[in-house]
Amino acid sequence: MSTQSWFVYLLQCDNALTYIGTSNDVERRFAAHQRGLGAKFTKINPPISILGVEKFVDRSSACKAESALKRRTKQQKLAWAAQNPYDSP
User: Fold this and answer.
1) pTM
2) Which family is this sequence assigned to (predicted)?
């Protein structure tokens, strides 16, 4: 059984858009998004910054939280980010 932590993250992208994803390494994933690798959305709307991050015990929990967050309004997503600010290493 893996003990690796997983994270849900919210990115600020070009055109005042946001992107939500999951990863076990947020910094690596953000760098990949910035290079145009990964999600089609972030290829079209390059990410500018990481707004929020929340840690989960496993991938399943993170994916469920990601799905729930994606159903929220933009204002609710930004409020979530304010409650879960990203602290760069």
Assistant:
1) 0.93
2) Belongs to the UPF0213 family.
